[in-house]
Design goal:
Blueprint: H1 20-45, H2 52-77, H3 86-99, H4 105-129, H5 134-152, H6 165-171, E1 177-178, E2 182-183, H7 184-201, H8 204-214, H9 216-221, H10 226-252, H11 263-273, H12 285-304, E3 306-307, E4 310-312, E5 315-317, E6 320-321, H13 324-348
Antiparallel strand pairs: 1-2, 3-6, 4-5
Length: 354
């Protein structure tokens, strides 16, 4: 005689899991709503917002930060937060690419990408296989790379030689139009986003990355090669940073050790703003693109804000503008706010793993 089945206890109230697909859609829609709001604020703040110069500057910010952010998303998705060596990788790739122009344009591109990939492999082996702290390790690497550039080139900046065909091609690379219409950086960003989306959400590697980011030990016990998965995430991020490094060096027409300054923090802010949590295993590349657009628009709006001089209680208050330091404070506040909201939502859902 078969024993009667025991009744299953209902899940506790307030702890019902929310479908991840629905949360992803809400996250993506939310960040694009923010993009629309920032666009409206920009139009209201200044008539210069819709000018060609301002929109081109915003496009430059979107493309370069976007390429880096797509790569960083793989690290965040794996629950290893961010790669703080990104500024060094951006600078190193650009400097090496300029140096290698003496061997031809193709050699220059290959050398710049190879330099970034080498750093990515080192970071991946250290964090993925040796299980070193990703923040400490990449922070140290981020200090070593600019110092190495200054030491090797004795503090000099490297300029592409306009007398050679390779040098002229490199200087014109950033402004190149694909099929005579689409800017090359925008095409690269679109390709990176499409490739990143497919790899993260439609491949076996993406599934392994999601499981690793959601629960490292469970993934390891399930037979997922977690060390290789994490290592590859750092390689992908470094490759994206190397591509951005070559483009930003072409735009500035000089290779220097400080060209990548700020790319790490801006990229991770865009990634988190786009719906990826530092807890790992959650997020979407489409949301990351929205986060990048929001950061670019936020920067554009802050640069255009002008509060005219006025009197308050008999005191004359001069015109108020937002300089670099004030803008950095606002970006930091945005990052803290978004991370705090993510942590709160995870706790409310019974996932206190942020």
């Amino acid at each position: 005689m078969t024993a009667p089945a025991m009744p299953t206890a209902p899940p506790p109230p307030g702890r019902q899991p929310t479908p991840s697909r629905l949360m992803g859609i809400v996250s993506v829609l939310g960040v694009y709503l923010l993009v629309a709001v920032l666009f409206g604020i920009g139009c209201a703040v200044s008539p210069k917002f819709l000018t060609r110069v301002n929109l081109l500057a915003a496009l430059q910010s979107v493309t370069l930060i976007g390429i880096v952010a797509v790569g960083v998303a793989f690290i965040t998705y794996s629950r290893h937060y961010v790669d703080l060596s990104i500024p060094g990788i951006v600078a190193l790739s650009g400097v090496v690419a300029v140096w290698a122009l003496q061997y031809g344009f193709a050699a220059s591109m290959a050398a710049g990408l190879a330099a970034g990939l080498l750093v990515g492999v080192v970071n991946g082996l250290a964090v993925g296989y040796l299980r070193l702290n990703p923040i400490i390790w990449t922070l140290a690497m981020g200090s070593v790379l600019p110092g190495l550039i200054r030491w090797v080139y004795e503090g000099r900046q490297l300029y592409p030689d306009e007398a050679t065909a390779a040098g002229r091609a490199f200087r014109e690379l950033y402004g190149c139009l694909v099929f005579g219409a689409a800017p090359l950086p925008a095409v690269v960003l679109a390709a990176a986003a499409a490739g990143g989306y497919f790899l993260m959400h439609h491949t076996a590697y993406g599934a392994s990355l999601k499981l690793t980011g959601s629960n490292y030990e469970a993934a390891r016990l399930s037979g997922v090669p977690v060390r290789r998965v994490v290592c590859l995430a750092f390689v992908i991020s470094s490759l994206a940073s190397a591509v951005a490094g070559i483009l930003v060096t072409s735009f500035n027409k000089v290779g220097a050790s400080d060209l990548g300054k700020g790319y790490d923090f801006t990229a991770i802010t865009a990634v988190v703003l786009g719906g990826m949590t530092l807890a790992g295993g959650r997020g979407n590349i489409l949301g990351v693109l929205g986060g990048v657009m929001a950061m670019a628009l936020l920067t554009s709006v802050m640069s255009l804000v002008r509060v005219p001089a006025f009197e308050l209680g008999g005191l004359s208050v001069p015109e108020i503008t937002l300089g670099e330091f004030q803008q950095n404070i606002i970006r930091g506040a945005v990052f803290i706010l978004i991370v705090g909201l993510h942590s709160y939502s995870l706790r409310k859902a019974g996932r206190d793993d942020s």
